[in-house]
Amino acid sequence: MSEQTPGSAEPTFTAPGTLTPVVTDMWDKQRSWTLDAYRDAGGYQGLARAKTMSAGELVDLVKASNLRGRGGAGFPTGLKWSFLPAPDGLPRYLVVNADESEPGTCKDMPTLMANPHALVEGVAITSRAIGADRAFVYVRGEVAHAYRRLLHAIHDATDAGLLDDGFGLDGQQPLKIVAHAGAGAYICGEETALLDSLEGRRGHPRLRPPFPAVQGLYARPTVINNVETISSVPGVLTRGAAWYSSMGTERSKGHGLFSVTGHVVNPGQFEAPFGITMRELIELAGGMRPGHKLKFWVPGGSSTPIFGPEELDVPLDYESVIGAGSLLGTRALQVFDDTVSVVRVVSRWTEFYQHESCGKCTPCREGTYWMRQIMTRLEAGQGRPGDVEKLEDIAANISGRSFCALGDAAATPIASGIKRFRSEFEAGYTTPAAELFPPAASSIVNSQAQSGR
Fold this sequence. Notes:
One of its GO terms (molecular function) is quinone binding. The protein has three domains: 35-245, NADH-ubiquinone oxidoreductase 51kDa subunit (Rossmann fold); 255-337, Ubiquitin-like (UB roll) (Roll); 342-440, de novo design (two linked rop proteins), CATH 1.20.1440.230. Helices cover 42% and strands 11% of the residues. The protein has 19 helices and eight strands. It has a four-stranded parallel β-sheet with strand order 3-2-1-4, sandwiched between helices. It has a four-stranded mixed β-sheet with strand order 6-5-8-7, covered by helices on one side. Helix 14 packs parallel to helix 16 and helix 15 runs antiparallel to helix 16. 53% of the residues are buried.
């Protein structure tokens, strides 16, 4: 187990945890994205098993595995599927959220690039479990290469006859999978805004209830899951619920993708059981940049509260991270060393959320604009007396009062940044962030170029 030297400001990193490549197992294979490569590795065996099971048996199997949603909320997947009302003879749909776009989040697009058939097989299994014969994958439109690769995977699976029958309410229909390219709006990662966009309207969050399970796409019962969630389903079918639930912690079962970016030697994707620690992941990533110390990190992307070196040994599972004061989210683990200005980082995040606010509700529309103005002043060293307190007040009035979670996401880095690094924010009254922390010192590109890498 990792240990931190008592009284030391600099964390020490020792033995890493165990990796469990499942979704990522094929990423290093020759032409891993092709149907032949996927089938050679045992692909579509889970779908073959699913076609021998009833819809109820499939839902019960996924429930027994304790697979939780990978989109950030961690809601039990099988339970979510079971919320659909009893069949009424009319359509029901599966929608896969592939609109990955939060700063630091980078697991779904690599999955679509390296192993799109895992998603296609997962879509087929899930569609059978919920009685759907039409599924939609909503892909972020700017990632054209991932979109094209998904289109090819759907085409190849269809041509191979893998989706010809076994779907729909009677279990006898072919499955049609539609890959839909969005227009690049972060708000469409919110599930109801995604549905509006799919239906041809501007992506705005919907008032709930009714929930998508009852009235989702085209006002029909709809299951919405994330790419990683659905891509994890084939493993459960192939290897069993007991195999899946044997990994992880008591309440956060299984494996997940942990995306480590920032000031580590080797940033990358690490698929590991829930419960691995950040100390272990940093060791797996080769440690911090030589000559530098860890200053702060976020466990779930820019929308989650900031952690420091003292949280390095918090197990990365949903309950433990919440208990320590943050959220596991999408496991977008951004690492910042002692050369980084917290004010500058939070200012970039605030700009992002202000730009991506859909404008539907007043707290988010107006509040993110005000926060961006103040953060710009503080970063430039032109803050006004009371700006830090004003930021705290605005963030508190956005959080929990917005129509969807984007408002909370915008307020969180402001509130947690001030809580942990108040003096840096107050220094913005008189001193530019670039003077306190020269950007060149924190640039990974420059440092690598200077070292000849």
